[in-house]
Amino acid sequence: MVRCLDCGAPLTDSVSRRSGRGPNCRSGLASAPDPGRFTPDQETLPGAEP
Question: Is pTM beyond 0.85 here?
Fold first, then answer.
């Protein structure tokens, strides 16, 4: 039986088992914001065509 890392309650669904936390404990967690897409600033390699 898999138990929640925070409260010790048994985890019954697959999402809870993957995260290791039950739905009540997961709802209190905050995650980092999505960085989104960006174009990296980099120089072209010598001899490479742009």
Answer: no
